[in-house]
Every structure is written in C-alpha cells, then in structure tokens.
Amino acid sequence: MADELLNEIEALGARLTEARGAIATRIIGQDAVVGLSLAAMLSGGHALLMGLPGLGKTRLVETLATVMGLSGNRIQFTPDLMPSDILGSEVLETAADGSRAFRYIEGPIFAQLLMADEINRASPRTQSALLQAMQEREVTVAGQTRRLPAPFHVLATQNPIEQEGTYPLPEAQLDRFLVKIDVDYPDRDTERAIVLATTGGAEAQAPAVFDAAGLIAAQAVVRRMPVGDSVVEMILDLVRACRPDGEDAPDTVRRHVAWGPGPRAAQALMLLVRAQALLEGRLAPDPTDVSRLARPVLGHRMALSFAARAEGVLLDEVIDEVTDRTMRLGRAA
After folding, report:
1. For 327, how many CA atoms within 13 A lie in the half-sphere containing its CB?
2. Structural domains in the chain?
3. Which of 45, 97, 304, 332 could pair with 308 as two cysteines, CB 3.0-4.6 Å apart?
4. pLDDT of 124-169, one tens digit each?
5. AAA+ ATPase domain location, by residue (predicted)?
6. CA separation for the pair 302, 121 (Å, rounded)
7. Which residues lie closer than 8 Å to 318 by C-beta, 6 or more apart?
8. Strand pairing report for 144-147 and 138-141
C-alpha cells in the first residue's frame, strides 16, 4: 500500500470517528444502524431503513445530513403523491411585456440527501420517478435531462406493519438500494437514556464534521482501498451461491429461493466491506466483513418461493446458512 493512500485512510478514519461521536449526541444506541448508514454513504449508495414507527429513523437521517454537511430535503410519501411533486415541473409564466415562457421549478429531489419517508405509501407510478435519479443521478422532465447535486443519496424509510394503503417496492427499485437496514427496538438501558436525553429542557445539537466535497473525497478513498483475493472470492462465491438456477447453489437455495441477487449485489458488497473496515479503523477488509454484511446486502435482492413461505422458511435463515457454508469452504480452500 502506498504511503500516501495509507495516510489518507488513517486521516479519514479519524474523521469518521469524530463524525460517529457527533451523531451519538442525538442518536443514542443503534450503533449498527448508524454504521451501516455511514457505510452506504461512504460507498456512494442509497439505504432503505426498515423499522417500526417511533424508532428514530427520521431523526437519524436529519442528523446525518447535519453531520455530513449536506443539503437535505424530506418527502412524506402518500398515495396521492405525484411524480411532479418529487421531480418538479414546468410552469407557464407571463412576463411584464406580455410574453410567455415555461420555467422549470425544481422538486425536492434536488438535494444532496433526500429522505423518502414511508416510501411504500406512494403509488408505483410515483415510486418509478426515483429509479433514474437513484441510478444515473439525473432526472428527465419535459424531455430535458437535469443533473442532481453531488453527492446524491436517498435514505428511505419503510414501516413494515402498516400494510393498508401501501404498495410493495418493485424489485428494480429495491435493487438500487445498496443496503437494507433493519431498525429494531432498543434495549432497556438504551431506552432509558433516550427518554432522559429527549425530554429535558434542551436537546443536544450535532455539529457538522464533513461537507459535500469532503464526503466525495472520502468516497474516492474507499474505492482505492485494497481488497485481498480471499475477500473477492468470498463475495463472488456468496452471491453466486444465492442464485437458485446457478451451478454453485446449495440444495437449500434450490428448494426455497425463487430468484437471487444479480451482479449489483457483488458490487455493493465490494464497496461496503471497504467502508466497514474504514469505519472500524482497519486498512483493508477481511472475510468476516462479508459475513456481517450478507443480510443487509442480499436480503432485499432475493425472494422465497411460495412453497417456502408456506412452510415458514425465513429468508434470513437461508442467507445465514449459505454464508456459513461459504465461510467454511473458503477456509478449507
């Protein structure tokens, strides 16, 4: 590893430690959730936060925008939301001299950090408005393509228990989320600390640690981090083993999985293991990073068959079984 890159990784690691400390002033506990959210942003991707109402998902996104120094907008997704409410629209204006011309008014998607709150409440037509933005970082309105600010990240929230009036996210959109993050209930001690910290006279404010240029530079460092052959091979082995029609699929995948992850899952793992290592102060990822990130990366890129769901098979258990098998085979090799 070149000395210059080594120094950049160490300096960035120290800055990320400062950022996590700033986030902790407003987000108590949820270390894994915060870590995965930061890893997604360091990887240049988007994250889907899945959890029950009232667990601090909105607060987390707002805090991330502040600490990372990004301009942020929030969209509350509802069944009557239209694509133009997200992307913007052209309006016909009349000038003082009586002439008329169309003027484009930007929608809330023109932000560096977009919070899509309860994303599954919008109709498929509105959800599809995000597809181009999430992949190409641009939108096309009235035949004209417009670039989005850089960096551009979507952090979406979804409440799993509210099924009335919701529309499942299409597979193409789910695949564009780099990672799915499960937000669980806090333990008793953490919940006690939350109650005391958020019901007093004044709440703590998180300072800005990064800015947009700093985050873009950090993303470049992540992409330059070295990855050993053993990690690369494990990523490929794991992703390919989760495809039911692949030659590398174990019996549990062939029996229970309807469709598996594509190459984008391997790309996501390659970026996230680097970001995970960086957040933990290491200079390169190892196979355990792949194992820990298997569920968040693969869980929304796979689906169980109808028969497996009827039998009560859980997708997380299938992923864990395949991951353990891949780890064993990797050690044996």
Report:
1. 14
2. 226-333 (1.10.8.80)
3. 304
4. 888 888 888 888 899 888 778 889 998 999 999 887 755 556 777 7
5. 43-187
6. 22
7. 252, 253, 256, 257, 302, 304
8. antiparallel
- Is pTM beyond 0.85? Reply is yes
CA atoms of 219 and 197, how far apart (whole Å): 33
Question: Please, how many CA atoms are within 13 Å of residue 84, restricted to the half-sphere of its CB?
Answer: 6
Place of tokens 């509350």: 76
Residue 59: CA count within 13 A, CB half-sphere: 20
3-state secondary structure at position 250? coil
Instruction: Give the number of C-alpha atoms closer than 13 A to the C-alpha of residue 41, restricted to the C-beta side.
Output: 33
Count each helix (H run) and each strand (E run) in the chain, helices first: 15, 11
Q: In this structure, how many other beta carbons lie within 10 angstroms of the beta carbon of residue 184?
A: 13
Whether the predicted pLDDT of 321 surpasses 70: yes
Per-residue buried b or exposed e for 70-89, using 16+ beta carbons within 10 Å of the residue's own CB = bebbbbebeeebebebbbbb
* Contact indicator for 210, 67 with CB cutoff of 8 Å: yes
Residue identified by tokens 């929030």 is 74
Q: Can you tell me the distance from the alpha carbon of 177 to that of 85, in angstroms, rounded to the nearest whole number?
A: 21
- The answer to whether the CB of 78 falls within 8 A of the CB of 120 is no
pLDDT at position 162, please? 55
- Non-local (6+) Cβ contacts of 199 within 8 A are none
* Dihedral sign from CA coordinates of 279, 65, 60, 193: positive
Of the candidates 282, 216, 279, which has an alpha carbon nearest to the alpha carbon of residue 21? 279
Three-point CA angle 327, 230, 220, nearest 5°: 115
Rounded to an integer, what distance in angstroms lies between the CA atom of residue 68 and that of residue 277?
19
Maximum Cα–Cα distance across the chain: 80
